[in-house]
Amino acid sequence: MIKFENVTKIFKPNTVALKDINIHIKPKEFVSIVGQSGTGKTTMVRLMTAEIKPTKGRVIIGGWDITDIRSSEIPTLRRQIGVVFQDFKLLPKKTVFENIAFALQVCSVGSKRIKDVIPQVLKIVGLEGKENRYPRNLSGGEQQRVAIARALVHRPKILLADEPTGNLDTVNTREIVDLLLKINEFGTTVVLVSHNKDVVNSIRKRVITVEDSSIISDQQKGRYII
Fold it and tell me: Which of 89, 182, 184, 208 has the largest CB neighbor count within 10 A?
C-alpha cells in the first residue's frame, strides 16, 4: 500500500530531512509515525501526497510509483489519500455541509452525489444534525470531525492524520483517536503522525519511530519510548 524504498530528502542547501528511509505499510494497517518536532515526520507526509519529491529513492502508493509523478496526475493520487491536519483548515464562512461539499465541488462532483455522500460521512464522524453550523459554533473536537469527514468524501484508501489531536484537550483527543480506529476497522489504511506519547501508546498498534531523520524503531504493537 505504502512503500518508501531507500528514500532520502535533502532541502537546499544541505539540510537532510530524511535519510535512507525504508517502510512498507500494508493495506488496512494502522501505523503511528512518531518522533519529536523536526525529525522528518511531516516530510514523510509531504512525500506521500506528492507535495515534494525525494532526492533519492522511491515512494510507492497503492502499487503506483509516484517518485516522478506528473503534475496532471497529482489530483488523482490525492483522491486516494485523505489528509487531516492539526489546524483543521476549515473555511470559516462556510457551513459544515459547505466545507465538506467544497472538497467534492472542486472535483466537479454533481449536486445529487454531494447530497448523497455528505450525510453518510457526517454519520461516520458523529455529526448528524450539525450540517448547517459554522466552524465558530463548533468545539475543537467537532471541527476536527468535520475535517475528517471532508477527508473521507472520496472514499480514500489511505487516511493520513498529521498531528490531528495537537490542538485538542484530553477528552476530544480520545474521541478523535477512537474515530480513527473506527475508520481503520472499515478497511482504510490509517497513518497517524504524532509526537504525543500517551496517544500513541494507547492505540497499541504498529509504531515507527523517527529520530535524526532516520528510522530507529519499527515495532508491531509498539510503544513510543523516546
Answer: 208
- The share of the chain scoring above pLDDT 90, in percent, equals 80
CA of 16: how far to CAs of 11, 60, 164, 216, in Å? Answer: 6, 21, 25, 16
DSSP string, the chain: -EEEEEEEEEETTTEEEEEEEEEEE-TT-EEEEE--TTSSHHHHHHHHTTSS--SEEEEEETTEE-TT--GGGHHHHHHSEEEE-TT----TTS-HHHHHHHHHHTTT--HHHHHHHHHHHHHHHT-TT-TT--GGGS-HHHHHHHHHHHHHTT--SEEEEESTTTT--HHHHHHHHHHHHHHHHTT-EEEEEE--HHHHHHH-SEEEEEETTEEEEEETT-----
Is pTM beyond 0.85? Reply is yes
Residue 102 CB: number of other CB atoms within 10 A? 15
Note whether 183 and 120 are within 8 A (CB). no
pLDDT (tens digit per residue) in 173-222: 999 999 999 999 999 999 999 988 889 999 999 999 999 999 999 998 76
- The cell numbers describing 123, all together, are 454519520
What cell numbers appear for 69 in the block? 509523478
How far is 33 from 54, CA to CA, in rounded Å? 18
